[in-house]
Amino acid sequence: MPSILQSLRAAACVALLAAAALTVACSHASQALAPSALAANPATYDGQDITVTGMARKPNARQMRRRTATIYQLCDSACINVIEFDRANVSAGSQVTVSGHFRSSFGPRAMNVLIVGGRTSP
Question: Which CATH superfamily is 31-116 part of?
Fold first, then answer.
């Protein structure tokens, strides 16, 4: 039968592990941003997982390496580019909220790109 001291130590260990898991989970949570905040300072958010809300502009489905992606701009007072593998029905003028991995540059010509689903490297 465990002693009271052993039970308290076990409870303290469980509490510490739970606190550590919560800290790790919170540190990976997406930041909610506007397209204009990303466009104004893309280097600050480069490589981070973020959530962005804005108006969809110029949606276009394209075949990209064995997968179809919807490519569009997400705008408020400024625009960012979005490559989305998870949703094919984005319409121009619709309000969209997406979460993905932000890259200040993507490939040789694309700047300020949010990748939703799929790979995050160019």
Answer: Nucleic acid-binding proteins (2.40.50.140)
